Amino acid sequence: MGLLSDALGRVQPSATVGITQLARQMRQAGKDVIALSAGEPDFDTPRNVRDAAIAAINRGETHYTDVDGIAELKAAVAAKFRRDNGLDVSADDCFVATGGKQIIFNALMATLNPGDEVIVPVPYWVSYPEIVRLAGADPVFAEASQETGFKLSPAALEKAISARTKWLILGSPSNPSGAAYSADELKGLAEVLLRHPHVHILTDDIYEVLVYDGLEFATIAQVEPGLMPRTLTMNGVSKSHAMTGWRIGYCTGPREILKAMVKLQGQSTTNPPSISQWAAVEALNGPQEFLAEWRDVFQKRRDYVVGRLRACAGLECLLPEGAFYAFPSCKGLIGKTSAAGRPLATDDDVVMALLEENGVALVHGSAFGLPGHFRISYAASDADLEKAMDRIEVFCGGVR
Questions:
Q1: What are the strands, taking DSSP E only, across 193-347?
Q2: Please, which pLDDT band fits residue 17 given cuts at 50, 70 and 90?
């Protein structure tokens, strides 16, 4: 009898975490490495949010809270969903967890059984299929390739649905591609889902505030209110307010599912961090004007990075509509050899050669289910982005 569980054996380690840790170790060893592998804003948490956390500490808000969050935060979450997304919900329809990932984990672990299927559009965030597998269910991959703008088409969704389908996971803007669905595109998917009442929808809206070129963010329960009774809408403050380390995610959805998630969370982490919750109250209720400035900075970085990538030999890159990632094709490099003589048989080879030979850490597209690409995060300083793009251009130019 082995020590480790069969469930854990079904799960792969996070590629993004692995590459980022490797880059960190290389820097600690004295190597010059620019890490563009992590998905984290490089801004500080806004001052008013930090001050709210300090005030909470000084008030003694350091004890256990309700498992699914303090009343003040759930009220702020409900107000945010009403204000920004047109969802008619109350605090009783909301749930708070230790990060957006725990929302997804709780929802899937609380609802999936062996034999159930979850539709995961490709490319996907690395954790989606692994959480599905950990819950004993089966991910069903519906490809949304570069030819479709990395977006799931209604026809591909229809084809992926079976009698065993329990969930569709839909992230917009997407990690890793930056693709963002318009309201009209979501309506097309909603029309399919309305024909299949056994399918629930989990929308990952964590990058909601980062959409560019005047695109108006939309979420599927907003576009088609008829889907609200079976939609879990997830969000958080990690990307919107540069609060990745504070670990606060939130959602709204059917109360039956929320009740099950409370039961699960009560036997795992219990409540989210109390101080972080009070900081999140201020983040959601306080001034939001800074978001426009942050969005402008990210859009300028996007334009710079995509322009430089398109000028590199062997790379093609679509213009992301949101988030802070680009997902270029590196198929033009595969089958060739790097300047240092390393064979480039896969996208993983390309990424590792670029790290070892030129000191830039990226994540291979295979980790997101779409070989022949890599993900680059432009949530970094302008200086680091310029140096990284210079190195990528040199690397691509040396491939033969």
A1: 200-204, 231-236, 249-252, 325-326, 336-337, 343-344
A2: confident
